[in-house]
TrEMBL record:
PANTHER family linked to this entry: DUF2804 DOMAIN-CONTAINING PROTEIN, DUF2804 DOMAIN-CONTAINING PROTEIN-RELATED
InterPro entries assigned: DUF2804
Name of the protein this chain belongs to: DUF2804 domain-containing protein
Pfam families: DUF2804
């Protein structure tokens, strides 16, 4: 079932010279083609969010520039029961020292992204996103609450021909978002906590990386759902990328499937069902018109974040768990989804 949305096949600027949305940029692409030449201050938001998962643990890194401040985060989760959870966020007034490129950080030809001191103390974090010949290098450093050094060193591969989902979501000529979502990217490396080492990647326990790259000019208040998952299922390497609420009424969605490196773009808004009072309850995510997506997501852990820093207030419930059900590609291939590791989140943001 082909999407109704316009596919972009060549490079394009996100904005006109006066900072308004370039309507020629509205659409989606299989590789990042937009240059986010944003102008203006106050409503501009830029971020890179990477999450790398294994069957037993995960790490997520965020570098963000929200104009009036930056929120840079290192998050580690060893899955329950008994696993540790560690989150470290550095709030940077005025987003001083945070510079994010107009294109995907860590891709060929971009400048390195480096935030935080080389040897962070207290609540500070160091995060690096660098382009290397073999992929994107992710490094991070901070101190745990008991003052153990936590160090991340991961390499995310860029398989030749692997497709991603980039899309422009237009609320208006003054409010719009460009997002580039990359799923099912193989990753290798280590996370070290004191003298303990957590391995990422290997023949028996592969690691998978997801990127959420965002550039845009946002309304003051917004709500969204986001879900993603990666892994091997039914003989395929599958990446799920789903969004909800924030795109409604814009004519664009951020929904797609990456199957063996090939993207299927889904133009339907999804039907999300979840419990806001029981975060352990299963979710359902379905396409209401077609039968392309019919999934149940069962959480095993909820990451609850509450931020109130004056100009910014954030309520995030990011549940990690497994997807089961089925999906169907553009060419009619039906894939059984069995115990695919990922997450689904419910977010309210005032920024």
């Amino acid at each position: 079932m082909a999407t109704h949305e316009h596919e972009i096949t060549g490079p394009v600027d996100l904005c006109l010279p006066d900072g308004r949305l370039n309507r020629a940029a509205v659409g989606w692409s299989r590789v990042p083609l937009h240059r986010a030449n944003l102008r203006g201050w106050g409503r501009t938001k830029r971020w890179e969010y990477w999450c790398v998962t294994t069957p037993t643990h995960l790490v997520a890194l965020t570098v963000s520039d929200l104009d009036f401040l930056a929120l840079n985060t290192v998050y580690l989760l060893e899955y329950p029961p008994g696993g540790r959870e560690s989150e470290h966020t550095s709030i940077v007034p005025g987003a001083r020292g945070v510079r994010l490129p107009d294109t995907v950080a860590g891709s060929p030809g971009t400048e390195d992204v480096v935030v935080g001191p080389a040897r962070p103390s207290g609540g500070k974090v160091r995060i690096e996103i660098r382009d290397e010949a073999s992929g994107t290098r992710l490094r991070a450093r901070c101190l745990t609450p008991d003052r153990l050094p936590l160090e991340v060193d991961l390499l995310v591969a860029r398989p030749e021909g692997h497709e991603s989902l980039s899309v422009v979501v237009p609320w208006s000529d003054r409010r719009f978002q460009y997002t580039s979502k990359h799923t099912a990217l193989p990753a290798t490396g280590q996370v070290r906590i004191g003298t303990e080492v957590l391995e990422f990647g290997g023949a028996d326990e592969p690691a998978w990386a997801v990127l959420d790259h965002g550039r845009g000019r946002w309304p003051r208040t917004v709500d969204w759902n986001w879900g993603a998952a990666c892994g091997r299922t039914d003989g395929h390497t599958l990446g799920l990328q789903f969004g909800g609420r924030w795109t409604a009424g814009t004519g664009s969605t951020e929904n797609g499937l990456c199957v063996d490196g090939r993207l299927t773009k889904i133009g339907e808004e999804l039907d999300w069902r979840w419990s806001a009072t029981d975060r352990s309850a299963p979710w359902t995510i379905r396409t209401p018109v077609s039968d392309q997506v019919d999934l149940t997501f069962t959480p095993f852990h909820n990451r609850s974040t509450r931020t109130d820093a004056g100009l910014i207030a954030n309520r995030t419930d990011q549940s990690f768990g497994h997807y089961d059900g089925r999906v169907r590609t553009d060419d009619g291939t039906e894939i059984a989804v069995r115990h695919l590791l990922g997450w689904a989140e419910d977010v309210h943001m005032r920024w």
